[in-house]
Each structure stands twice: as structure tokens, then as C-alpha cells.
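In this supplementary section we document a worked example of the pipeline. Step one takes a protein sequence of length 367 as its only input; no multiple sequence alignment statistics are reported here. Step two produces a three-dimensional model, which step three serialises into C-alpha cells for compact storage. The input and output of this example are shown verbatim.
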Amino acid sequence: MSITHRIPAATGYSVATILLAGGKGTRLADLTASEAKPAVHFAGRNRIVDFTMANCVRSGLDRMIVATQFAPRTLHDHLPARWGGHFRDGGLVLADGQGAYEGTADAVRRNWDAVEASGASHVLVLAADHVYQMDYRPMIEAHVRSGAAVTLAADVVDQAQASGFGVMHVNREGRIVSFLEKPANPPSIPDEPGRSLVSMGIYVFDTAWLRQAMMDGDGMDFGHDVVPLAVQAGDAMSYRLPAGAAGHSYWRDVGTLQALRHAQMDFLRDAPAQLPFPSAVSDWYLGHGSIAMPGATVSPRARLVRCIVAPGCHIPADLVVGEDPPEDARWFRQGGDTLLITPAMLRRRDALRPRPTHVAAGIRRHA
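The serialised model returned by step three reads:
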């Protein structure tokens, strides 16, 4: 099994690509009760994982191993169907951990034979559960030029929000001086007060260095265990996500209900052009800051404010959600300023709050 992406021979290096797609995404509550976070729908029939897959195609990567674990069935069906044609025959390999992966680094360790068989000089490790656009080639090339053990992709967030991420303190050359996982008091960027540099969960490793780190240690996680080894040795670099077509960088960790809804609101202006698989805004946006996932039916006479409507929901004409917090709290799950509506929640509401039955006209279906 080969997972090597061969850069043109003049560059003298090759890259093994591993996509980590086994996350459960517990902060997305009911949406990930039986579905992996990367498989959650985003802006119509797109799934979160599609952003990373589109980046790989954009970067010319045609061989990849995908490490799945929690509820892998949807990804195992979706990835070959939607993306298989962009990879060489046998180039898209799905490796189900079946509960064995104990962290990001452990997932790579357990697939290390494939890395060794590839003969790759470098290893590109990608996360499958973020929303962003990126060409990985400039980052890989910057890493090779630096001669570092590892390079971390980074984006800028407000310092007040950085405590939810792995935060880098870097010098003016981009070398990482310290790496802090979810610190209470995150450092700011030199000469950029009020802003912090955070890890995007994307790594380029020197294969020989990573092999040694895997052999010498038993760390399970890159952020907690492996990256700090390179930082302590002064051998870790950062790579800031470049500005996109809109003139600024865009990267979102959509790990909460609020973040998932807000990110889709961001795409109201730039979609469908910025989506991996463009779809009309009317296919998924309900108005009033609410979105419907594929498989939901919504009466146009319902009023939903700042809601996510899960697949399988049938929203009747008389339903009002998002205007009466105490009433909403009785039936629906709240995440920040966002309410999640699922079929189970609607069934419970119907059972405990009887109402006259009637046929709602003009049901709006979301395919």
C-alpha cells in the first residue's frame, strides 16, 4: 500500500499524506451521536470533510490514507463516491481503527508501516473536521527549506478566544518558542497585540524525525506529546495560513453547535463559489439565521430563529423556536446562541405537549 505523493523530481522530496477522520465531535451533541464529526453536513449536501478533501485535490495530492474510527460507515461510503475519481487507482486508502486509535499520534503510529513502505521523506498530517481553503504545497515547500523537524499550519484568532486552541508563541522568523495546549492566558503574536497564533491541526514532519519520536516515546497526541519535543529542541516552525480570494484567511473549527451554524452563515455571501460542492443558498438556508440539513422538511409557515434542523426532522407550520427561551429549553438543545432540533426532540415535544393534528401546506423539503 503506497500513500506517497511524489513532488516533481527536481525538488528531491516526497510526501506521505494521512488524514485523521476518526473524531467523535461530542460538542456537536445529537448530531454526532451516531455520526463522525467530519461526516456532518455543511451548507447543503457538503460534509465537513469535503473541505479538506477539496484542499488535497487543489494541492495535487493523489494518494492518501484516511484514518477513521468512530461511526466510520458514512465516510467509507462518501469519500470514495465523491472523491475517489481524484485519486490514483488504490490511492485513497480507508483505515478503520475499530476503536484502537488512542489519539492523533497513535493513529499515525498504527499506520506507520504504510509510511515506511512509501519511502516518503516527509509526512503531511491533516485534520478532517475544519472548514477552510488551502493549498498545502507552499507550506510543504517552506517546511523543506527550513530543515525543521515539524511545521505547524497556523491561523490568527482574537487573543480572548485563543484559550480553546493549541497556541504558538513564535519569534519573528516564525520559529515556535513555546506551544501551549488550551492555555488560560494565551500569548499574543509579536507586534500584533490582542491576537494569537493557533494551530490548525495540520503538520508537516520530517519522516526520519517522526520515526524516531514514535520509536522513543509512547505519546498518543501530536499537540500534547509529539510537537512539544520539537519545540523544546528549537526545531519547530509555524506557517501562517495565507489570505484567500476574499483577501483574508478563513479557517473555522466547527466543533460546537454555535460555531457550526455561524460558519454556515459566513458562507451566505461567498457561497456557493467557496463550497467544495456548490449548492443554492435556498437549499439549506431558512432565514432568521437558521439552517436545515438534508432530509429535513420545513413548513414555510414555521418560524425558526438561529436554529439547526437535523436530518429527518418534519417541522410543522405552527412551530416557533428561538423566541421563547424557557419554552425552547424544555424541548430543544442549546449551544451558545444556537438551538438544535432533532426528530427525537420533536417526538418528545409532541408526546408531552399534545396539539391538534392538521396537514401543513407547502412543506419545504431539503434534499
